[in-house]
Design goal:
The protein is mainly α. The chain has three helices and no strands.
Length: 119
């Protein structure tokens, strides 16, 4: 009974207090919402930058792998060519083999190297 008589006499003060409390609460909630939305926008922007950097790094890695494969294939070709070029040992016990000595003798005598004997 006392509460009802207190409410009847002070209804304006109570309504102002409720309104103030409601405004404070809504302002607090709006601030939380705004802060969360700014945070999520910043997080999305950071994730976008990270994805772009990962994409760029992935493309660079693909290019580097292709170049590495080209270098490896060129390396294999060079090794095959070197194996084809070296068909006999150059230095055994002597510095010049028999064919080389024959060529030196022919040049010393003045015989051309494109004779029918060489073919």
């Amino acid at each position: 009974m006392f509460i009802l008589t207190f409410l009847k006499g002070n209804i304006k003060i109570i309504s102002v207090l409720i309104l103030m409390f409601l405004c404070s609460y809504l302002g607090y909630k709006y601030n939380d919402y705004k802060r969360d939305s700014e945070y999520s926008a910043a997080r999305e922007a950071a994730e976008l930058v990270i994805r772009d950097e990962q994409k760029r790094e992935s493309e660079l890695a693909k290019i580097m792998n292709e170049k590495l494969e080209q270098l490896k294939s060129n390396e294999r070709i060079i090794e095959r060519e070197r194996i084809k070029l070296v068909d006999r040992p150059i230095y055994n016990v002597e510095c010049i083999d028999v064919d080389g000595l024959n060529l030196i003798k022919k040049y010393a005598q003045g015989i051309s190297k494109t004779t029918s004997e060489d073919n």
